[in-house]
Design a protein that fits this description.
The protein has about 600 residues and is of the alpha+beta class. About 40% of the residues lie in helices and about 10% in strands. It has 4 domains: about 145-320, Lysozyme, CATH 1.10.530.10; about 335-405, no CATH class; about 410-465, Membrane-bound Lytic Murein Transglycosylase D, Chain A; about 480-594, Membrane-bound Lytic Murein Transglycosylase D, Chain A (Roll), CATH 3.10.350.
Length: about 600
C-alpha cells in the first residue's frame, strides 16, 4: 500500500514537468533606433515566448546564461513565485541538474543515454562536455507572462497618448512607450518587492530626484501622468549623461549603439552604465559577455532583450492574441483642479461637494491609504482633482473653508524602553494590542526591543479631529468627561479637570491633551508608579498653555508677556525665584484661577 502511494507520487511529480518545443525564431523590427545583434536574437526570442506562449501559471526551467535553452515547464498556480525548498519547482530544478550531470558523465565515458537524457542532450548539439557540466549549475526558473501581457494590451491604448506626449516633450524616441510592458504590465498600482511603484516602477529616492512627491500621505509615483513625465525626464538625463560619457572616452555616439545602454540604465542605473561604457565602450554584445560587476546579473542582462520582446509582441499583438478590445474602465476622465488652501479630509470634501469617495480616489491616485481611511488630512497646497463641471468648484470650496479647521492626531504615543521591558509588556501597560505595537514599529516576529529606544504605542485617540468653532475666541472647549473652569482673556487657556474613565492611563490622558506624560504627573503630584482610578479627577491643560523658553528669557519676563503674576507662574511650575530656567524648557502658563 505504502509502495503504491510512493509510486503514484512519483508519477504525479513526473507529470508536473514536461519537455517543450524549442523556442522559435522571430523577425525582429530592429533599425537605426535599436540594435539587435545576431547573438542577442535567441535571447529576445525566449522573452517573446514568455510574453506570448506561457501564462503566469507556468514555471519555465531554462539556462540562466542562454535563456532560449528551455528544458521543461512545470504547471504551478504561482509560476516560479514563492517557490520553496522541496516544492515542485525545487524538485524539477534538482532533477534537471542530476540529468545534465549524468549526460556529461555518460558522454565522457562514451556510454549510451536513456530517453530523458537523449532529449535534453539534443539541446547541446556540437557543445563540448564541459558546457553541459556548467549548464547543470545554471538551471533557472522564469514565470510565464502571457495573461498579464494580454491584459496590459487592453490598457495600453489609454496610456499611450500621455506617454507619447511626455516623450515628445523630452525629444525622445516614441519607441520607449513599450517599456511599461516590462516594468508593470501597465498596472499603475504595481508595487515590487524592493519598493518600486507605479506604471514605471520608480524607486522612492529616484522619484524624489525627478521631482515627484513621495511621503507618508502623497506618492506621485502612482499618478500615471506625473510618473510618465518623471520617467521621460529620467530617460532624457540618461541619454545626455551616457552620450557625454561615451564621447569623453573616445566613442562615436549613434542611437543604435547608445539606446541599449539607455534602456538597461533604467534597471541598472545611469552611473552603472557609465562605468560599463568606460570598460567596454558602446558595444552591447561586449557588455553581456565581458562587463563584470557583482550587481550586473541575470535580470539586468535580460532587461534590453525583454524590452525588445515586449515591443515586438505589442507591435504584432493581432498575430499573438487576435483582436484586443480596449478596457473601458481605464480612462482619464475630464476634471477640474483646485489647490487646497489648508489641510482638509477627503471625507469633508466628499460630503460638502457631494462627490463619492470612490470617484475622488480614482481621480487622485497619488493620495495614499491614510487619506482614504480618514487617518490623515490631504495636505494644504495639494492640487486636488475633482470631477469636471463647467462652473468650476470655487463656491463649493468656499463652503469647505468656512467650516472649522481639521487637525490630525497620530494613533500612537511614544514610550522609551527601560531595562526588563518587553514589547507585549509595554502594550499591556498601555492597554494596547501587542500585535499592533509590533506591526507599528516594524519589529521582528519575536518583538525584539532594546533599552533606550523610543517605540510607538498604539492609541485609540488617533485620527482626524475638528477644531472648536470658537477656538480663535479662546473659549474653552467642553469635551466629554471634562469639567471646564472659568477662563480669563488674560490667560492662554484655562486648566480643566478631567474625570478618569475605564482604560485610561496617565500617559494616554496626557497625550490626548497635547501634554507630556511627566508634565501631567507633575501637575497632579503623581509619579510613574502612581495608580489612577476610575472617577478620579486630574488637572489637565492643552498644548497652547505651555511656553518653550527662548534665549534671553526669564521666568518673570515670560509671566509678564502672558499677563499673569510671576509668583503664579513659579508656583505652577514648582520653581523658586532662585531657580534657573533653560533654553528649550517648557513652562506651564497658569490661568488666573490657578
Amino acid at each position: 500500500m505504502l509502495l503504491a502511494f510512493f509510486l503514484n507520487a512519483l508519477v504525479s511529480e513526473a507529470s508536473l514537468a514536461k519537455l517543450v518545443k524549442p523556442v522559435a525564431d522571430y523577425e525582429l523590427d530592429c533599425n537605426t533606433t535599436f540594435y539587435c545583434p545576431e547573438s542577442l536574437k535567441p535571447r529576445v526570442a525566449f522573452w517573446v515566448e514568455v510574453f506570448s506562449r506561457w501564462d503566469t501559471n507556468t514555471a519555465i526551467m531554462h539556462d540562466k546564461d542562454f535563456p532560449h535553452r528551455v528544458y521543461s515547464t512545470v504547471k504551478r498556480k504561482e509560476g516560479c513565485r514563492r517557490s520553496k525548498k522541496g516544492g515542485s519547482v525545487d524538485r524539477e530544478r534538482k532533477r534537471l541538474e542530476r540529468v545534465l550531470t549524468s549526460i556529461a558523465k555518460k558522454r565522457r565515458a562514451d556510454r549510451p543515454l536513456n530517453r530523458s537524457e537523449t532529449e535534453l542532450n539534443s539541446l547541446f548539439v556540437k557543445e563540448p562536455i564541459a558546457s553541459i557540466e556548467r549548464a547543470a549549475e545554471r538551471v533557472r526558473c522564469q514565470s510565464g507572462n502571457k495573461d498579464r501581457m494580454r491584459k496590459a494590451l487592453t490598457h495600453f491604448m489609454a496610456y499611450r497618448p500621455t506617454i507619447l506626449d511626455a516623450l515628445e516633450k523630452q525629444s525622445l524616441t516614441p519607441e520607449l512607450q513599450y517599456l511599461p510592458f516590462v516594468e508593470s504590465a501597465f498596472n499603475p498600482e504595481a508595487l515590487s518587492h524592493v519598493g518600486a511603484a507605479g506604471l514605471w516602477q520608480i524607486m522612492p529616492s529616484t522619484g524624489r530626484t525627478l521631482g515627484l512627491t513621495v511621503n507618508q500621505k502623497v506618492d506621485e509615483r502612482y499618478d500615471p501622468v506625473l510618473a510618465t513625465h518623471a520617467a521621460a525626464k529620467y530617460f532624457r538625463n540618461s541619454v545626455d549623461n551616457l552620450s557625454e560619457t561615451a564621447f569623453e572616452n573616445g566613442f562615436t555616439v549613434v542611437n543604435r549603439d547608445l539606446n541599449p545602454f539607455v534602456i538597461t540604465s533604467y534597471n541598472y542605473g545611469v552611473k552603472g552604465m557609465e562605468r560599463a561604457i568606460k570598460q567596454v565602450g558602446l558595444d552591447y554584445e561586449r557588455l553581456l559577455t565581458e562587463y563584470k560587476s557583482p550587481s550586473f546579473q541575470t535580470a539586468v542582462k535580460n532587461f534590453y532583450a525583454s524590452f525588445l520582446a515586449a515591443r515586438h509582441v505589442a507591435k504584432n499583438s493581432a498575430r499573438f492574441f487576435g483582436v484586443i478590445e480596449h478596457d473601458p474602465s481605464v480612462n482619464f476622465s475630464s476634471h477640474n483642479t483646485v489647490k487646497l488652501d489648508r489641510a482638509t479630509s477627503a471625507r469633508r470634501i466628499s460630503k460638502t461637494l457631494s462627490i463619492r469617495i470612490e470617484q475622488l480616489k480614482k481621480l487622485n491616485p497619488a493620495l495614499k491609504s491614510i487619506i482614504w481611511r480618514h487617518k490623515g488630512l490631504i495636505p494644504g497646497g495639494y492640487v486636488l482633482k475633482l470631477p469636471y463641471r463647467a462652473s468650476g468648484w470655487s463656491s463649493a470650496m468656499a463652503r469647505v473653508y468656512s467650516l472649522p479647521a481639521e487637525r490630525e492626531k497620530p494613533g500612537f504615543i511614544w514610550h522609551r524602553v527601560r531595562r526588563g521591558q518587553t514589547a507585549c509588556g509595554i502594550a499591556e501597560k498601555y492597554r494596547a494590542s501587542c500585535r499592533a505595537l509590533i506591526k507599528m514599529n516594524r519589529l521582528n516576529s519575536k518583538g525584539t526591543i532594546y533599552v533606550g529606544r523610543r517605540i510607538k504605542v498604539p492609541s485609540k485617540n488617533g485620527g482626524i479631529h475638528v477644531d472648536n468653532a470658537n477656538k480663535n475666541n479662546r473659549t474653552t472647549p467642553v469635551l466629554a468627561g471634562l469639567e471646564s473652569s472659568t477662563s480669563s482673556p488674560s490667560a492662554v487657556e484655562s486648566m480643566t479637570r478631567y474625570k478618569v474613565k475605564l482604560g485610561d492611563t496617565a500617559c494616554s490622558i496626557a497625550y490626548r491633551f497635547g501634554m507630556r506624560c511627566n508634565e501631567l504627573l507633575a501637575l497632579n503630584g503623581l509619579t510613574r508608579n502612581s495608580v489612577i482610578k476610575v472617577g478620579q479627577r486630574l488637572t489637565v491643560t492643552n498644548s497652547n498653555s505651555w511656553h518653550v523658553v527662548r534665549k534671553g528669557q526669564t521666568a518673570c519676563g515670560i509671566a509678564e508677556s502672558y499677563r499673569v503674576r510671576c509668583g503664579s507662574l513659579l508656583d505652577a511650575n514648582r520653581l523658586r525665584r532662585s531657580d534657573t530656567i533653560r533654553v528649550g524648557q517648557r513652562l506651564r502658563i497658569p490661568s488666573l484661577r490657578y
